[in-house]
Amino acid sequence: MPKTKRAPSAARKMFGERLRAERRARRLTLEDVGEAADMAWNYVAQVERGERNIGIDNMAALANALGVPIASLLDQSSTATVHALAAAE
Length: 89
Description:
Layout: H1 10-25, H2 30-37, H3 41-48, H4 56-66, H5 70-74, H6 78-88
């Protein structure tokens, strides 16, 4: 029986959206973040799209690559700040 592709969970989608917003606010490429986090750029892209179930160690590596606390990628209240920063640039 073929595997069907499941839609990203709300938590993965939220994390990915915040990751992308933080990356773009800093004008970094997927390659920049991947290299700094010691990950393949396409893995970072899949995380941003909510397609990968990411572990805490990889979350920490991505947060460190962006220079942000891991909580900023998980906290709902930080989204408005990130979007405001990205819009201002």
